[in-house]
Queue: 4 jobs
Job 1
Amino acid sequence: MEFNRNKSIYLQIAEGISEKILSGELKEGDRILSVRELGAELGVNPNTAMRSYEKLTADGIIYNQRGIGYFVADGARRIVLSQMRQEFLEIELPDIIRRMKLLEINPKEVF
Amino acid sequence: MIRISKLGFSYGKDVVLKDITMNLEEGRIYGLLGENGVGKTTLLTILSGLKPAMSGTIEVDGTNPFERRPSTLSSLYYLPDEVLPKQCSALAFAQDMGQYWESFDTGKFVEIMKTFDSDINQRMDCMSLGQLKKAYISFALACNARYLFMDEPTNGLDIPSKAQFRKAVTKYTSENTTIVISTHQARDLEAIIDPIIILDRQSVLLNATVEQISEKLYFDYGNTVEPDALYSELIPGGCIQVLPNSSGIESKVNIEALFNAVLGNKETIREMFKK
């Protein structure tokens, strides 16, 4: 896996999983890879994979069933959707607007 | 658990390690970094019981590895930078040497060799450097030792094998394995090493997890040079800078930039990471 240069790797991994939930590749109730399996699949430190899972758990997107594994939580898609919309509106969109002004692009040319 | 306290070592008058103090916790994959000649290899050989500590102490599970007790030696494996081509097949080598590690698993050796696209029946003295390295890496992982010390393991590996190596290190070790990897190939191993240890000729400059590093330092990729940057370097499309993290936002740790920032600001870094 190639990582974006700016964002913490554990956050990028968490986002990758969130996007799979959004696209429907992962469904609510699905079991996901164990921490070590994920680490091996991506070639990252298990501690990094663990931090991604801790973040997703804290956000209510996945949950851990002791001794069995991690699962996509009920309502996960709704949470992911609202998180990603918020990130888009607060971080990505202002950036796009700034670039458009700089490049003198009229919104009408795009939409 | 490995405890190192005030460890010193010299070759004649040439002091290599002077005052090394650190603990290595179970289940971690440590990256050992330092400029040429700071004693990374020497430290690994002391950890493996090949050389004695000349001052200070070193304990692997409470025992000095230089006592070379069978129980200590069979709990660790040291993979040197340069490896010997034996006059037999990789499989014969692994089965023969594997007898010294009670948890050695031939099936695992065969499986790892397969992930590297290597032929277990090829004679080691007919292998290229990279092929030989892969055979030794496969053997090192198949020993299932609690401690695995690897000196520049990705040297000589081709591009696909570097990714295979990163995956294998996580896949074929357990939560109880403690790994120390010395390397100059920071990019090869960036995603896999955590915590990161940086040595200089005197002592340990840094021993911190990636989480701790990204809490204290911010890695910025931008166009404007910040006055409080500890390190900055021009790269295509802008520059990378290492700054004290004042926003609390976690960025991706760039190990090369970290290394240069630490070497150029030894005291500042020491203060920052003081516990």
Job 2
Amino acid sequence: MQTFIEDLITKNNYQATHLLAVLRAVQAQYHHIPKAAIEQIAKLLLIPRTQIIGVIEFYSFFHLTPRGQYELLISDSITDHMLGKHEMTAYIEQKLNVKLGEVRTDGLVSFDNTSCTGLCDQGPAALINGYALPHLTPAKIDQMADLINQQLPVSAWPKVLFDVKDNVIKSSLLLAHCIQPGEALHTAFKRGLKETLKEIDMSGLRGRGGAGFKTATKWQYCSEEKTDEHIVVCNADEGEPGTFKDRVLLNAYAHHVFEGMTLCAAIIGAKKGFLYLRGEYLHLYDQLNAILADRHKLGLLGQHILGADVDVDFDIEICLGAGAYICGEESALIESLEGKMGVPRNRPPYPVTQGYLGKPTVVNNVETFMAAAKIAVNGGEWFAAMGTEKSKGTKILSICGDCDNPGIYEVTFGASIQSILDDCGAKDVLGIQIGGPSGTFISNTELARKIAFEDLATGGSFIIFNNTRNILDIVNNFTHFFAHESCGFCTPCRVGTSLLKNQLDKIVNGHGSAGDVVALEELCQLVKTQSHCGLGQTAANPILTTLERYPELYQAQLKKISYEPGFDLDAALETARRLANRDDAAAHLTQVEEG
Amino acid sequence: MAKTIMIDGLSIPFEEGQTIMQAATDAGVYIPHLCHHPEFSPHGSCKLCTVKVNGRNCSACTFPAMEGQEVINNAKDLNADRQKITQMLFVEGNHFCPSCEKTGNCQLQAVAYHLNMLDDHFPLFYQHREVDASHADLLIDHNRCIFCTLCVRASHEHDGKEVFAISGRGINKHLIVNSESGLLKDTDVSAKDKAAHICPTGAILIKHTAYQVPIGERIYDHQQIDQVSLNSEQVDHDK
């Protein structure tokens, strides 16, 4: 192990910022991070061992205790549930002889839940040693069980198991016509960089991650910072459950994205760029690096790009995440890039003035960079001609859930929900979760509403539920998700998201009494208004948006009397019964005294 | 003329680079806080010091004072939220004030009294947490840690060490110490370290000193936390 780690640290140039990459490699090799490895890494990277332990315990994909040689994680998104996650979990448990959350006694395989893997249009999905396995079926699980028992390495497994589909169904401005590698840069250099920024400004392009900050303004602010060390970061930590459009863009349109990043670098004067790729998209890593190599050969990256009059030197490095939704928040992402726990920073200062290693940094979504590249080629007018007054252009949606054709739909801003449902073949609709769990749940009486920053904003997640679905199941899945993903930095979110989870469980499991829904709503408001970052501020949205629309659903869960115990009385006696070795009638309690 | 901000209708002067908390403290205005300490870089995590700045919630300990700010601090709704946040800290850990040797000297307890907290309000988590009594002079009772990171910052910024760190995520966050064994006795901590004396609760204690000052004669037995805090922190700012 000693040599393995020495080589690894050398390969990473002794950079502490590469801690996640180092730990990913150790986890992949030893299926946990051994104590001796922590000690050695701390010495070689000159960082305290506590920083390494902190990072290991922060990210879901790192472990201090051994996992199986085959680490199997099943996606726990609501969309996976709707496609049979429970049945597949039971089948895996039986077939592989391992319980969810455990390591098999022979140490060969471990099995656990993981947050949404971004394969919502082809679930139920899983990850095996980090690689995406779409569309699980009993037949595939049989095949996997054989491969595992033969101890064949994952790299030698049949490729068909890993066949992730793009499912691009509706194309418009961004997806319809590909630009050639270098076309946006050529046009921008010819037109002038300042003029190109003006075109982007004129296009009205706003950030596609969901918050909607005007892209040209962000680039302008960053460029005004007096330093020659600006940074460009592409946020490909697409963790919002129900979203998968960035996976498709990076698989089929990576040149566009890199082109947009390079354009940004030219405009703001950056030499260094990062693509922060969520760990769940490991299957894209090698091919993306190959594209970067191609772009070097084409003179589109590296020194003196395209031999332009203005000297542009720019390089892009791909950094993989390790299972933490919070890293989609831009300042948490920057912390993660620096090799730390993904804890959102205090603002101000904003990343445009002090970002990666304190340098002025532009962080934009994958789709934003792609749109900027196309605007550089086609001009601002071309983009601004579509959309609404405040939301120009198009939005790429990841549509999943109850519809005939889940996949990628590029819709014009201002499109009504009804028109989108018609496009994807959704019938008997109960409601739609727009923007993922952190967004809004709308009911089937609101289908005239529109996709736009001024009405329903979304980073791309669009989950459809039909009338067979139970709203409380959906809300429960989302609320558990936030409690699991809270970084724990601030009190209201750290404690509040877990309190929300417990309070909702209490109501859903039928132990709520009068006043419990009011208490739930109060808690929601506290978490929403007092939390440090967007995660906490939106964690109560699933409850709040459904409570507003279906108050009777929550009330119906409550018991009729006010002195109902807030827990299962009889279940609480289980330990006592076991200790007393009794199971007679007198050792049981009814929840409420009859009469 | 000095630049000013308005806090609850009072005009408060500030110097360029000061946070709202620093300006308020210097002017004798108390903003409740636990993770803030004037000697260390601000952290902004406990959220007790949340104030409304021009209508928007901001942490007073990290947010810079800027000309023209209208700050609301001592308001009914903010204090109600502060009380609930304090209750969250109580139910998250295991805080039994009557049997804790820090009682009367504890900032968490004092701020709870100040905010008129009369019960836990939320259901307790009853988390299983350990006590590390391995060190000859110091003790960590993890039941009482509120993750304010003051020990982390004091060790790093003042003592020039890295004895403490916060690890884990969400509700599983926990304090860890920098030794191969994971025990306090194997770290380079000393009872003379600032970090050993900075804990606002009873999570880090100096051994053999517990009842030298009897209950009834302790810091917050005489004065409320707002006065104690202003008296000590104004001095700190002047340093």
Job 3
Amino acid sequence: MIKAFSAASAAMLLTVSLLSACSDNNSSSSTEAGEATPKSGTENAEQVSKSGFPIANEPISLSAMVLLSPAQPTEWNDIAVWQEYEKMTGIHIDWDEYTTADITEKRNLALASNELPDIFYRTKMPDSDVDKYGAQGSFLKLNDLIDQYAPNFKAVMEKYPDVKKGIATADGSIYALPNLTDSPSIEITKKLFLNQDWLKRTGKKLPTTTDELYEVLKAFRNDDPNGNGKTDEIPLTADSLDDIMLVLKGAFGLGNKGTGNGNWDVDPDSGKLRFFPTSESYKELLTYLHKLYSENLIDQEIFTNSGTNVLAKNEQNMVGSFSFANIVARANTNAKDFVGLDTALSGPNGDHLFTSARGHFGSKGAFMISSTNKHPEATMRWIDYFYGEEGTRMLYLGLEGQTYQKDASGNYDFIPEIVSNIPEGSSFDQVVSKYVPYAGGSLPTLLLEKYFKGGETEPAAKAAAEKLGPSLPEELWAPFSFTSEESKEKLSLEADIYGYVSQRTAEFVQGKASLDEFDKYVEWLEKMGLNDLQSIYETAYSRYTTK
Amino acid sequence: MTSGSEGGIALPRSIRKNWDLYLLILPVVIYFLLIKYLPMYGIQIAFKDFSAAKGIWGSDWVGMKHFVRFFNNYQFWTLIKNTVGISIFQILLAFPLPIFFALLVNEVRGKWFKKSVQSITFMPHFLSTVVLVGTVMAFLSPSTGLVNNVIRAFGGEPIYFMTEPGMFKFIYVFSDIWQNMGFSSVLYIAVLAGIDKHLYEAAMIDGASKLKRLIHIAIPCLIPTAIIMLIFQFGSIMDVGFEKIYLMQNDLNRTSSSVISTYVYEIGLLGSQYSFSAAVGLFNSVINFVLIIIVNQTAKRVGGTSLW
């Protein structure tokens, strides 16, 4: 009997703990929702000041979901800027920090279950989700709030026409505040960097055409420029094949409106919207890339490569050239060896264009206010500060006197005590992330080049961007907007079509598929519904041009 | 099982009588209700256009739309072929090996040697998938990998294993065998250890050789367990491990590495098309369900062993 009783009580215990685990979950989520709802919305509008600080007369607490960069402290409120900003505004933010690996899943779960944080702050929200969940009512429509409470953002919209064109959804609603940049070096997303030390050793000059590039790469492969007696040189590498294609496709006339809408641009002959992976020029690009790959001029591991691999190969002085946004993130000890192109490469048909560039939009959905947010006015005022110059400076440099200073010639930089002694084993980003939250990028703000101290604004990367500047497309598109009906159909078409394009592209370059099959590949894409996708894009494009 | 007619009165009485046993099983029942059955109401989104704002109940019914879309998808047959292909290959190779291994270990006399062999083969099971795939990729790398260095040492051309679609199945299954053979054999070793020693003694007295004893005692004793395990394997034939395949996937091996689970992940969670991925998942489960019933019935008829 005693045995039976103890077994039963063990079973009881188990049951109870199971049940309590369940109810625990429920209670915590309900308090989370409850915390942010001390007052109703209308009452609050009166307590929010229209300008100046503090924003709220009584302390407000908001919950926010955010993507955590590996360089940052795991508690976002440990970052000095947020503590200071809380004092200034009287608004406390409860950050829910998620890593890159988790953020997409957590964000989608929050949206699908409709248990929303008050704010989505840098959550890698895709454009299609902004439109979709905006139309479904998960996000607040911001048009009136911007008008009344966001003077800085309004000024930004006036200043940059592509921002105004790109910000609203198909019906003119604004559901998200974007990540914006005003910096050529950042807007030129990928650049080609060559090893000038190797150029000297092989007696080559910086290439100006794709043919010259081919010759340079061949010399890198044959002449043992790293001088170790082995043919272990990798003439051209990158994180992925995509990155290599980005810096070369301009020379083939592809992507002539920038990267704002992925693989869509305008056909130079007909002036119509075009999906360029089906064009003849794309076939030429693939032919060129296949030639490079089959002659061992492109990293043979390009299809499974990663940033850390590029960095490791650079450490062993094995790399002749690579494509990335900046040098320092992909080359460490030999970073000084690398230099950007003097001018954009000219292609076989005389195209002289560099198209790995976007407009001022970094990402569209950097900041969203949930429909369950009880303090939309205060939230809008809270974020608007960062679209002004003062706020941007605070995000990227911190607090004057404490973390940054202005020198005699008007340049801003971190104070030496902070950045001069970076401890062994930590990075620059890790050190400054104690004070400023910019690591990881894509913040809802307008980034100005003079305040940003990262890889892209290092002299070599900046110089590379300046030299490419004249060869950029005249117009750089902002991402188009789609109605929710359009984007539903578009999403399901794109998933298959884009997947097939990248699969076949890899096969063509590697040589598993012969380029004679290119027509079959185009035909297959049409079977998959490319024409339907084209007409969706055309509708969006005509809306974009008439805006 | 009591029949329905007497159940009405008899059941409560039997509960009162054996209340402690019922209490004992209660946590399991609750677990299954909460974790396995309750979420099933979400299956309905496979037949709806799920919208977060409207909720699961409120979303509009669309019938078989998502299923039709999946069946008409250009990848449909590739997905099925890859999923079933990898699973069958896995069952053919990875299923008999642990049995074979258990028989070998069982014959080993030296206790110390037996234990160390078991521990060494057992250990890789505890590696996480990410680490395992990282290791496999490092070993197979065309420039620095051990395997290709050996090939090069013998004058061969390095093979780029990870981007070769034809190799995918082999890499997947052999790395799985390397990782899990020791662990899977534990069950069989336990069964073999449990065989009545008298059987062996009787056989020895009758003059049966080692091989005879293996064929007539050890293997027949293993068969019922092996069949149950086989039924389990067939029941999950459509679920090849998502994590490992996803980590090993790249653009070039996609033709042989896209399986239903990776497709559901890409379309559903990343592309947030919940209804469509629910439909694909449901289709998957139905096939598994049918398969497990067929295999179970066959096993019952042929071998007399079955799950139920």
Job 4
Amino acid sequence: MRRLISLAVGIAVLLGGAVAYVVSARNTGAATNAVPVVEDAALHLDRTDLFFRNLADGPDQGKLAAVPAADPGAARRVGELSCDRFAAARGTAICLRLQPAALPPLTDILVLDRNLSVIHEETLPGTPSRARVAPNGRIVNWTLFVSGDSYAASGFSTRTGMYNLDTDELTKTVEQLPIFIDGKRYFASDVNFWGITFDAAAERFYVTMASKGKTYLIDVDFAAYQGKAIAQNVECPSLSPDGRRIAYKQKIADGKWRLAVMELATGKISHPADDRLLDDQPVWKDDKTLIYPIRTPDGKTGIWSVGLTGPPKLLVDNATSPSLGGLQ
Amino acid sequence: MYLAGTRAADQAAARATPESPDQPPVRRSKVLSRVPGTVLVLGIVSLVTDISAEMVTAILPLYLVFGLGLNPLQFGLLDGLYAGATAVLRLVGGHLADRWQRLKAIAGIGYGLSAVAKLGFLAAGSSVPAIGAVLAVDRAGKGIRTAPRDAIISLSTPPEDQGRAFGVHRTLDTIGAFLGPLVAAAILFLALNNYDAVFVTSFALATCAVLILLALAPNQHRRKTESNRPSIRESLNLLREASFRRCCVWAAALGLFTITDSFVYLALQRRWDLDTHFFPLLPIGTAGTFILLAIPLGRLGDRIGRWKVFIGGHLALVAALVLIFGPVGTWWLVLALHGAFYAATDGVLPAAAGPMLPEHLRATGLAVLQTGQALARMASAVTVGLLWTVWDVKPALLAITAALLVVTLAAAIRRPLEAIR
């Protein structure tokens, strides 16, 4: 009997403690912003603005924010929109937003116009990973992480899709894309695609494909809808505005990547002066400058910039998912 | 050893001792009336543990990507390693439980490790190696506890009711797995997407399960003599026992051609072109059928012979795979057959093999049997993946289905378990 009473007390204490923790967790958010923030700003896609997801503690954490690209230290302006990933080009933007408390996770994919009003919406399974708008502003694409369900193995996979604003055509996944490696059609059950980047005319795109522990840079003829592998260990490609170079995260070991740039014509690889761990798709500010988020060892993420030569510099602290308002 | 305890637990413990004859069970509901209290206790322990485990599994990708901003592909590589380590630890857990004659203690250590691991997520922060270590501890706990727990179920139940007992345990276990993601979603909702709240709740539930186990499950009242302390050599000698060896060999042989769940779901999704929204929900169909069928099929095994049910389960899997490629059938029928396959095999195998093992080697024997089957299934997953690459999906699955059918028919003809009856 004593044993039963101790059991009941033990269970009551444990469950009571859990309930108390859950309740207290509701009130952990900071009441004031840790950095200067201009609230209720009417954001619109201005090519002189740098957009990002605000990570600074406070009520506006998670919101889409903007600063002048020429003065990134200025107070960040936020509106109502929250995005986990954001990208824009030529008057069109894409915002990926994880649905709260949805299990298995679901992501809302919002297509936005110049004034950041929603013009199209999709909901797909997975968690937001990458987002891009083609330079012509007519095709948006995204990558979502999809996890194995709870009863199967705990492997992760990625699902990359796109939406064409002109034809209203939704491609939920590019997995069916025929791929050629060394001239031979490649088949595998474990292919994953992520990180699309379109060329200026939206006639080609580049994307990462992973299979059997290797990652490939795939060059895709969009009209013919087939792709060929042109390099290895190239992830999250980003095509420069002049179409000559691809900036990407170069896999140097399992779970380790750094920023690298490849000349498409020669295949020559160069390394900008930043060898820290990079885990995102870089953004070209112009033909010679790159922007990307870096998570420093103290756990903070900020947006950095580096030229093809010269040292990197911090643009915005406590921020991620950078995009210019429409230059590219 | 404890003195006071519940009637059900005492009675179950009494059953475990060879001296005591079968006693009329205490009155419970009709379905469960012949299930020993110990089995119900272990079933509830598993139910609560599975809620705790599955709530973490459900949020882990979200937590890694969103809570911490890590890349989940940094973790995928360790998966195979963990699976292998879990298999080895199951053998270690089974052997030590028998050697020290401490089934409950070793099971408790396994459950305890997994409970502590839940708090480890809070301590690990965003360090990738620390999170890897926490995941390893969690899976080590799972590996260690399985064999002693199944041995307690087996030893608490008279030989003629083993199928029903394992059916009840696995049903409760799967109900927990079912509830886990729902509980996690509710907590994320209540705690405003605070992931730490899910880990804390998961820890609290896992610890409750350990307390229930310690307070309500009986220690095994076995005679402690030196001769009953099995050495590694004696454990290895188990495989010289013809009937048990055949049981292990056939279970592993069938495992070699058992297609992994993810391939079944992938093929099913392609065959009926199911929406991707639907994909994460497919396992619920399998689990739902499992919950409905595990007890009836366990009882059927007690009545007509467990090996027949075990073979029948594999035929259900063959039928499911044939449906995927045939012109007739629907996706839900495939899921029902897939669930029936698990219901006819998962608990039925230890129920079939348990009574042929000596009591002091029960945990070791069950560990050997289930590890062999698990390793064979891992090999199958690799093979199917390779064939899929070389031949594409249809020929790969057809080949493995044909092979499974041949082995199943051979196993039906050889009837390894009937030999000792």
